[in-house]
Design goal:
single chain; 387 residues; Rossmann fold; Dna Ligase, domain 1; 5-stranded mixed sheet; 4-stranded antiparallel sheet; 13 helices; 18 strands; 33% helix
């Protein structure tokens, strides 16, 4: 029986969302399979690591008792010799608990987890892990890099430009000039964040600098994008390494003066976007599947699959797109290398249960590692003998 470590939390603005993804959508279905030993590894907002079965209980977090728990619990040490092993001191003096990990299931959103940092550590440990690799994670979590890579692959996005946050003080006039080529309204976003945190919709030029300052509060890179008129937003979860399986194209339902922001996603239970007759989505506010003319549906699905391949995503990702419903044009918006809750509501509607989903993702992780082991990473030479 393989041992799987589910790592969640972290020093990210999406810390709390990560907890929900881990406990509800990853740990619970993994344990229900009866096929794995599942270990919960929590990273606090300060960056300390903890490993304990009590971390599987959501009430520990919802009650606020987590602070009391981590004030008393032993932190985890990790070794990377011939794999990935967790170590911690037990409550009894002189005892030490250890657990060799076969597969890591990252359930971390945002910085220091979803952005490639954790994946690099796991690659060096030579342990199988679920989800996108280092390069794909870096690209996917950098909205500028993602648009540059997909543009090189011939995939369309709306007009955009980006800035270093230092330019707000060193060259504000340059920022204003660069954005003059874009038509309002605009969206101003932190480049590396997910869950729509720090995003502002800007209707007129006098609002621009304030929106840039909000984004700069969260990130050192800022992207400014031209909004799509006659907008339909759609998103498509995809799983696979080389053979890809799309779920259902999903349309978040928002009001015409709103956008798919953090509150709409997580806090309002669909109240902002809910419409009578809407099909149930992640929080009850999505058309699932999106009600589009068949050719447009197929066009959006094809674009999402091309994005997944262009960025070299593996395991799982979700591609967000923007459609101009009058022109029928589909634009790439961004890609999420770890969808919140794995977007399991969509997979369930597609006929894939939560248990089947996590099992498939673990299998894909093991397949990728097996494939990587076929390639040599060392090279024998006589180079050092000359010294």
């Amino acid at each position: 029986m393989k041992t799987i470590a589910v790592i969640f939390g972290g020093r990210s603005t999406e810390h709390d969302i990560s907890i929900l993804t881990a406990l509800k959508s990853v740990i619970k279905p993994l344990e229900l399979t009866g096929k794995y030993n599942v270990e919960a590894v929590y990273i606090s907002k300060k960056g300390n690591w903890y490993w304990d079965d009590r971390l599987k209980n959501i009430s520990l977090f919802t009650s606020g008792d987590i602070e009391n728990f981590i004030s008393k619990a032993a932190t985890v040490q990790m070794s990377f010799n011939d794999g990935f092993t967790l170590h911690k001191s037990a409550q009894f003096a002189g005892r030490k608990l250890s657990k060799k990990i076969d597969v890591v299931f990252p359930a971390m959103h945002g910085t220091y987890g979803e952005d490639g940092d954790l994946m690099g550590l796991l690659e060096m440990a030579n342990v199988a892990y679920v989800g996108c690799g280092v390069a794909a994670s870096v690209i996917a979590m950098d909205k500028v890099l993602a648009k540059q890579v997909t543009r090189a692959a011939g995939i369309a996005s709306t007009p955009w430009c980006w800035f270093d946050s230092n330019q707000l003080t060193t060259d504000p006039a340059g920022i204003i000039k660069a954005t003059e080529k874009l038509a309002y309204p605009l969206f101003v976003k932190p480049v590396h964040l997910g869950s729509s945190i720090g995003i502002t919709k800007v209707e007129e030029p006098k609002q621009l600098m304030n929106a840039l300052e909000v984004a700069a509060h969260y990130d050192n890179k800022i992207i400014v994008e031209q909004a799509v008129q006659n907008l339909i937003e759609v998103t498509l979860p995809i799983i696979g390494n080389t053979d890809l399986t799309p779920a259902l194209l999903e349309r978040p339902l928002t009001q015409s003066d709103d956008f798919f922001n953090f509150d709409t996603k997580y806090l309002n239970s669909g109240k902002k976007g809910g419409k009578s007759g809407a099909k149930t989505g992640s929080q009850g506010y999505s058309q699932l599947p999106a009600e589009l003319e068949p050719k447009l549906y197929d066009k959006a699905q094809a674009l999402a699959l091309n994005v997944y391949r262009a960025i070299n995503c593996e395991g799982i990702a979700r591609v967000d797109m923007l459609i101009d419903k009058l022109s029928g044009e589909v634009y790439f918006n961004e890609v999420n290398p770890l969808p919140g809750g794995l977007y399991d509501h969509n997979w369930q509607a597609s006929g894939v249960s939560s248990i089947q989903l996590v099992t498939k993702l673990v299998d894909l992780a093991l397949q990728r590692q097996e494939s990587q082991q076929k390639h040599s990473t060392t090279f024998s030479t006589n180079f050092l003998k000359q010294f």
